[in-house]
Amino acid sequence: MKKYIQCSIIALILVVVGCKGVIISLPAYGDTATRALGISNLKISTTISTTGVSSCGWRYGGEFDVGGFYSGTFVRCYNYTGVNETITCVNNAGTVTSQLTLLQPQYKDLNINMQCSPSPSYSVNIVFKACPTSIISPGVILSKQSTSPCGYGCTARFSCAAGYTGNTVDATCNEQATWSPAPNCSLVYAYLTINLPTTNNKTTRALGINNLKISTTISTTGVSSCGWRYGGEFDGGHFILVHMLDVITTLV
Description:
Blueprint: E1 4-11, E2 24-26, E3 32-36, E4 42-49, E5 55-60, E6 64-71, E7 76-77, E8 80-81, E9 85-92, E10 95-102, E11 110-117, E12 121-129, E13 140-145, E14 155-160, E15 164-165, E16 169-173, E17 179-180, E18 186-187, E19 193-196, E20 202-205, E21 212-219, E22 226-230, E23 234-240, E24 248-251
Parallel strand pairs: 2-4, 3-12, 19-21, 20-24
Antiparallel strand pairs: 1-21, 4-10, 5-6, 5-11, 6-7, 8-9, 9-10, 11-12, 13-14, 14-16, 15-18, 16-17, 22-23
């Protein structure tokens, strides 16, 4: 009677996702912020105490200085409206809130400064980027997009790869350079296992897939040793003894 043994190997991948708010408030966490490429009406806001403050103003890109939005000498706020920006200022019993709005679409990274004399002074580096169109999340496939690069307001259609389940969604690139609604595909465990030997020693799975399983069933008759190895980096040791059965797995 022949004896059989079954062995599986599992690879795990962890994905972490985060998000930010729409208005950039100074001081900003880490003095950095990310917004979608081509966004307009970008708002940067700050609230300060006017105690001991003589003047405050906005500056960005080394090109623009609208002058002071607050004067301690006259204890008053100043508003400004231009072609490319607006500035508002509200004084509420010694607490001033000012907001700089960049009216035009933004395509180059910016450094924004809010400077008061003698203090405080805040700075933020704003990075503008397109929404992701390559690796979005495990199992998600992009089928079309309205523009390239896919910046603010760009639309795209997403579907789920083989081995995943979920709805096809039409999403829009939002202010934070993320997709809304966010495409989401869930694993269908019945499609995960790759059984060896495979046809032509090849198979395809979605890029970013986790819980990937490769399984084989062999006869132990005349077998001296068996073990798993992949990427030339890992050898899980022997589970029995036999010649290696190879499989090439392509992630797309």
